[in-house]
Amino acid sequence: MSLQLPGLRYDVDLRSLTTLGIGGRAKYLFKARDVSQLAHAVKEARRARMRWVVLAGGSNVVISDRHINALVILLSGSGLELKGKTVIVKAGTPLSELIEGVIRAGLCGLETLSGIPGSVGGAILGNAGAYGQSISDHLMRVTIFDGKTVRSIGKEKCGFSYRESIFKRKPWIITEAQFSLARGDRKLLTKRAQEIMAIREKKYPPGLRCPGSFFKNVLVRSVTKRTLTLIPREKIIDGKIPTGYLLERVGACGMRHGGIEIAEYHGNLLLNRRRGTYRDVRALASVLKRRVKRRFGITLEEEIHYIQ
Fold first, then answer.
1. For the whole model, what pTM was predicted?
2. Nearest Cα to 272, choosing from 212, 216, 217?
3. Is the pLDDT of residue 12 over 80?
4. DSSP3 helix / strand / coil % (the chain, rounded to 5)
5. Fewest Cβ atoms nearer than 10 Å: which of 43, 116, 124, 198?
6. Mean pLDDT throughout 189-197?
7. What pLDDT shows up at residue 147?
8. Which residues are catalytic?
9. Partners of 259 in the beta sheet?
10. Rounded distance, CA 300 to CA 235, Å?
11. In whole angstroms, what separates CA 300 from the centre of its chain?
12. Which long-range contacts (CB under 8 A, 24 or more apart) does 185-192 make?
């Protein structure tokens, strides 16, 4: 059964749509510029009994090299609206665009997220954060498409925790978000954002093919007392054990598998240096997880999402 979508593309290479530069060819690709086009695309996929996958900024994902027998929906609609200290933003908006917009307006609460790649919707899905600040901190409401209707849900129903949300467990698509921010000094906010960007650019130089941090940091409350004896106290930050430290201790830096390697300067950064593949990523991730489990008794969890 064929799909009836204007502008539908066929047999599309997905590599250029991800920051890692890995991915096979999708049977169909459709750019949804607003919620009505998104809803129409999902309903068409269901009518045709076809699987559908949503992409936006392309970070935080590792896509199979195989043929993706699905409709890939690319959220391309962006934009934000400022109403005093309230910000309403479309999910497809680059996170950088949201942060720059609120800083220009003299609003604080998102500046430490500067430099995190991807879209607003993707950041909410993974509850992205940095330097003790998470995107959910000042979030008020999220508009979703649940496959049948478009509706708004309050923050309390989003199930936010460290790098987690209900959106990882429900087939809901985030279409819009509302934030309530505080007033701040625009010059100080700009300075703070620039400082964070400078730190990030040392870790993620322009043009680097990677999905972002690969594994989640480890919550101290989730590990045993024995494990804590193996971790220097000064390495624990905001109640978390940096996974980069754990990986460096097990010799991850500089490791390679096929075209994928670990950065020499950071153990939690997987890079596509040559023609890395999905299998290369999975194989290297498996080795890293075994090493950390054997040395520290910790089971690492991926921050990225695998799409097959």
1. 0.88
2. 212
3. yes
4. 30, 30, 40
5. 198
6. 94
7. 87
8. 163, 213, 303
9. none
10. 17
11. 17
12. 185/106, 186/103, 186/104, 186/105, 186/106, 189/103, 189/106, 189/107, 189/108, 189/111, 190/103, 192/111, 192/112, 192/114
